Amino acid sequence: MAEDLSQQLQDQIGRLRQMQTQLQMVEQQRQQVEIRLKEVEEALEELGKVGEKTPIYKSVGNILIKAKGKKEVVEELNSTKESLELRKTTLMKQEGRLREKLAELQSKVENAMNLATGKVSG
Question: Which single residue of 54, 62, 73, 77 could bond 50 by disulfide (Cβ 3.0 to 4.6 Å)?
Answer without folding.
Answer: 54
